Amino acid sequence: MTCNWLAPDLTMSAADYRALIDAALSFKRRYPLQTEGALRGRTIYFLFYNASLRTRSSFQTGLSRMGGHAIVLDPQGGIYTPALPEAEIPYSTERVADVARVLSSYGDAIAIRMYGAPAGWVYGAAHRHLEAFSQWSRVPVINMECDRFHPCQALADVMTMREQLGGLTGRRLCISWAYSGSWHKPVAVPQSLLLAAVKAGMDVTLAHPAPFGLDPQVMQAATQFAEQAGARIRVTHDLRDGVTDAHAVYAKSWCSLAHLPVRHGDAVDEAAMRETFERHRDWRIDADVMQLAAPDAGYLHCLPADRGQEVTNDVIDGPSSWVFQQAANRLHAQNAVMAHLLNPGCLA
To answer: Boundaries of each Aspartate/ornithine carbamoyltransferase Asp/Orn-binding domain copy (predicted)?
Structure first.
């Protein structure tokens, strides 16, 4: 079976995930001089259905510095758009099964970023797209963010908290929804982070208005991982309650699953989505809210942040912000992922 990176925060055991965190931090300390040949001669194909700054630049930079080659394919114009059978259009799309088999005969891995509009906003459709690639590919498939998971971001997040807090067992993390003028953000980041954090032994408070609950399957899995790791999960619908005494505050916006379509071709209930967002404009991280957290607590965000909406400038640019260390760790987390998949011996 081909080793993939579709949802390791859901499928990898807590012990294996913690070992990967350790390996990623060690790999970072050796980068770049002692890792420059780790992926020499390896080729990865990158397909971005969505805009990307950190994911695109960090993957390509890291692969290049390790001696590999990145080939970026535009799936919505540069090539025939890979599609599942129900979405095929003659001479405009090409079946995912065919694309996966061809690319995996050329290179060493396929990395895909897809969520939202390219999948019709049907929750889970983008993840099924990646699963189809994985089914037909003979090389690893890397999830660079889908509509369910963002495992590369979560690994960078946990690495950052390890660097800032030391051991994570018993540390308190608040994952909070925050207001944005756009509803177009998937639930991938909070879901992967929740799973990764409890595997690392953190006590997690998930704070969000009632309409912004996460996928029940993810919540159930997180509860099981928490029990195995001796961690705790608490849900609150009060922002200030969620932040109180937290060692790390990770607040960002995400869409309401209740207002997404359930069938391909149906539309998002945008009126209901916007009305739900506007009712909760006060869910914002500012200096007063951060003062409720534990002394020396840090603020995290995956970026891009909607400044003045999700978070104020004095927080994201202030001394409690771990955001840019977190962004820098995307490079190192993904280097570890690529090495884990293509040359695991170099992680030792």
So the answer is: 189-340
Q: So what CATH class is 153-327?
A: alpha beta
Q: What is the pLDDT of residues 249-299, one digit of tens each?
A: 999 999 999 999 999 889 999 999 999 999 999 999 999 999 999 999 999
Q: Which residues contact 110 (CB under 8 A, 6 or more apart)?
A: 44, 45, 47, 100, 103, 104, 133, 137, 139, 140, 141, 142
What are the extents of the domains in the chain?
A: 8-149+330-346, 153-327
DSSP letter at 285 equals B
pLDDT in tens, 204-245: 999 999 999 999 999 999 999 999 999 999 999 999 999 999
Contacting residues for 49 by C-beta, under 8 A, at least 6 apart: 75, 76, 112, 113, 114, 115, 118, 119, 126
Contact of 12 with 158, CB cutoff 8 Å: no
Tokens of 249: 């505050």
Is residue 146 packed enough to be buried (19+ CB in 10 Å), middle (13-18) or exposed (0-12)?
Answer: buried
Same CATH topology for 8-149+330-346 and 153-327: the answer is yes
What is the 8-class DSSP label of residue 183? -
Q: Which of 170, 175, 193 is nearest to 234 (CA)?
A: 175
Helix 151-165 and helix 14-30, axial crossing angle in degrees, nearest 10: 70
Question: Is the preceding peptide bond at 304 cis, omega within 30 degrees of 0?
Answer: yes
CATH 3.90.180.10 given to domain 8-149+330-346: no
Give dist(CA 289, CA 302) in Å, integer. Answer: 19
**Burial call 124-141: b when 16+ CB within 10 Å, e when fewer:** bbbbbbbbbbbebbebbb
Rounded Cα distance, 44 and 29, in Å? 24
Q: How far apart are CA 117 and CA 44, in angstroms?
A: 25
Beta-sheet strands, E only, within 40-151: 43-48, 69-73, 81-83, 93-95, 109-113, 141-143
Residue 334: other Cβ atoms inside 10 A: 27
How far apart (Å, rounded) are the C-alpha atoms in residues 239 and 208?
7
Question: Is residue 297 within 8 Å of residue 320, measured between CB atoms?
Answer: yes
